[in-house]
Amino acid sequence: MQYLLTLYSDEAGWANMTPEQQKQGVAAYAAYSEALKSAGVLVGSNRLRPSSTATTLRATNGKTQVLDGPFVDSKEKLGGYFLIDVPDLDAALSWAGRCPGVQHGVVEVRAIWSM
Amino acid sequence: MQLRAHKTLDEVVRCCRAKLVAFLAAGSGDLAAAEDALSEAFASALVAWPQEGCPTNPEAWLLTVARRKLIDAVRRQHEVPSSEELEQLAGAITADAENGFPDQRLALLFACAHPAIDPVVRAPLMLQAVLGLDATQIANAFLVSPAARTQRLVRAKTKIRDARIPVRVPDRSELPERLDAVLNAIYACYAEGWSEAAGADSARVELVTEAIFMGKLLADLIPDEPEAWGLLALMLFAEARRPARRGAAGEFIPLMQQDCKLWDQQMIAEAEKALHRASSSGVIGRFQLEAAIQSAHTDGLQRRCVNWGAVVRLYDALVELTRSPVAEINRAMALAELEGPQAGLYALEWVKTDKRVNEYQPYWAVRANLLARTGKCDEARHAYEIAIGLESDPAVRTYLQQLCDELPE
User: Fold this and answer.
1) Are B61 and B138 within one domain?
2) Residue B276 belongs to some domain of the structure
3) Which residues of A touch B (CB under 8 A)?
4) B84 in the same domain as B15
5) B367 in contact with chain A, both atoms CB, cutoff 8 A
6) Cβ burial, residue B246 (10 Å; 0-12/13-18/19+)
7) Chain A touched by B177 (CB under 8 Å)
8) pLDDT at B81 over 70
9) Does the residue B52 lie in any domain?
10) Of B38, B73, B102, which marks where a domain is finished?
11) How many angstroms separate the CA of residue A3 from the nearest CA in chain B?
12) For residues B357 and B402, what is the distance between their CA atoms, to the nearest angstrom?
């Protein structure tokens, strides 16, 4: 079963970090990805550009509107994701618990609806 | 013949329903589908048994039919089910039914009390899935509309299936964390029923029976876990006092004034045995401590000399372990018995820093009691008024009002 781990965090946090801290942050994510890979559970992952680059679309009265900015305007922004393939929710939660994102934000775990 | 068939089916439903549901759900991971399949199997039995006679092994008959219904349901859901899916389903629930099948009720309890399930639905979900209480009974017990409760239960079951929450007893390494959720859910269920002291509301009283049943089941299935025995002991101690908790006219009788002769001695003995079993492990826990406190009260009141020093020490340990303001309030009351009301009031001052106690009736009742004993009657009256305002049980309200009225001007 595949699960999507989406990572939300305060974007200002990254900007306020010293270059040394940023380096450590990147290293933590690299190590996490490597662990997922070597366990053979990683399907895909990506880091997203800041939410200031986000564009939102929705149709109102049949007319598609394009708006600047992310969909949910919360303090924590969607910043990246990991797609993993594991047997059950316990395994997914156990991997999510090791994600560095838990330390500086929120990680949401969602089961993939296989088509 | 028809009568006998119905009677046999009734018996199987009562004693084996949970075991059958748990077994089917553990195999398929789909609790709602397992329940539906079993209901259909019961319906088939209702038709088949009176005509063909009761099968020699009714459980195995129902399991076989339910399994077939479960596979049919998967077929209906997907127009073209993958053969792999069907094979997995059939394989997972293939057991030599004639020779019995493993008891998965505990696995199902752990799935219902999974951390990923909303804490407030855990206890009702356990009651419904493992004990087969219907939505109305559960709604009465938890004071919500049946529709709202049903919706939440359905959502929880869908999550178990779609997020694939495993129906299994967790590994040793995860057990402590998961066990807490199961213990707390069982205790919540007991507490819901305990508050109905008068016994007027049968659904609530049933909760008590079910909670104790689940407590026994849990202790039997994981006998090495001291907290499972601790919880069982705690519930049995409290339950043994039920006959003495209300007077003839339904009036509230506090523990210290209860007639010990009304206590259920057999249940107390059972509780002591469970507590002994828990404490022999040498690992201390919240429920064990609470049970030990109950034991000290029960034993002391029967012999008319409570060892308050021991009670305070047990509360010290409980406060240390849980940091719970409720434990601190009870500790203050015990300390007042040991060292006088002023010491109790002093201990309460510490509790006050936790804002939650402002809306907690026992805090104000204990405060009022201690203030009255130190002669501060005006302050005591004020505290009683707040306690009365916070209490929802009319019998307890009347009792507090009496205490307030008895205060000297």
Assistant:
1) no
2) no
3) 1, 87-90, 93, 109-111, 113
4) yes
5) no
6) middle
7) no
8) no
9) yes
10) B102
11) 8
12) 23
β-strands A2-10, A42-47 pairing: unpaired
The answer for B 111-140 residues in CB contact with A (under 8 A) is: 114-116
Residue A87's pLDDT band, with cuts at 50, 70 and 90, is very high
Q: Does residue B128 lie within any of the structural domains?
A: yes
- Kindly determine whether residue B115 and residue A93, on different chains, have CB atoms separated by under 8 Å: yes
Mean pLDDT for A4-32 is 92
In degrees, to the nearest 5, what angle opens at C-alpha A111 toward C-alphas B27 and B152? Answer: 75
Q: Residue A57 pLDDT more than 60?
A: yes
Delineate the domains of chain A, giving CATH numbers in brackets: 2-47+75-111 (3.30.70.1060)
Q: Look at residues B49, B76, B102 and tell me which one is the last residue of a structural domain.
A: B102
pLDDT band of residue B104 (cuts 50, 70, 90) is confident
* pLDDT at site B394: 84
- Residue B141 and residue B78 share a domain: no
Distance CA B110, CA B100 (A): 22
The minimum CA-CA distance between A97 and chain B, rounded to whole Å, is: 13
Share of chain B above pLDDT 70, in %: 88
Residues B158 and B111 in one domain: yes
Prediction ipTM score: 0.72
% pLDDT > 90, chain B: 42
Q: Give the distance between the most distant pair of CA atoms in chain A.
A: 50
What mean pLDDT comes out for the span B348-362?
A: 86
Of the candidates B193, B191, B190, the one whose C-alpha atom is nearest the C-alpha of residue B203 is B193
What are A34's two structure tokens? Answer: 């490597």
Look at residue B231 and tell me whether its pLDDT is greater than 80.
yes
Query: Could you give the number of structural domains in chain B?
Result: 2
B115/A89 Cβ within 8 A: no
| Shortest Cα distance, chain A CAs vs residue B101, angstroms | 24
Question: Which residue segment(s) compose the domain that B188 sits in?
Answer: 104-199
The more confident residue out of B199 and B163 is B163
For residue B165, the chain A residues in CB contact (below 8 A) are 88-90
| Residues in chain B within 8 Å Cβ distance of A89 | 114, 116, 163-166
Kindly state whether residues B54 and B118 are assigned to the same domain.
no
Would you call B19 exposed, middle or buried from its count of C-beta atoms within 10 A (0-12, 13-18, 19+)? buried
Q: What would the pLDDT profile of B286-300 be if each residue is shown by its tens digit?
A: 999 999 999 999 999
Q: Is the same domain home to B37 and B93?
A: yes
Spatial separation of the C-alpha atoms in residues B4 and B14, rounded to whole Å: 15
State the smallest CA–CA distance between residue A105 and chain B in angstroms. Answer: 18
B105 touches chain A (CB under 8 A): no
- Is residue B64 a part of any domain in this protein? yes
How far is residue B364 from each of residues B158, B195, B345, B348, B380, measured CA to CA in Å? 43, 19, 11, 10, 9
Same domain, residue pair B68 and B85:
yes
Residue-level pLDDT at B269: 97
Strand A76-85 to A55-60 pairing? unpaired
Q: Is the pLDDT of residue B263 over 80?
A: yes
User: What pLDDT, on the 0 to 100 scale, is given for residue B356?
Assistant: 80
CA distance B82 to chain A (A): 12
Q: Is the pLDDT of residue B240 over 90?
A: yes
Pick among A4, A86, A88 to test the B interface (most B CBs inside 10 A)? A88
Interchain contact, A89 vs B165, CB within 8 Å: yes
Instruction: Verify that B67 and B88 share a domain, yes or no.
Output: yes
Yes or no, beta carbons of B162 and A113 under 8 Å apart: yes
Tell me whether B333 touches chain A (CB under 8 Å).
no
pLDDT for the residue B301? 93
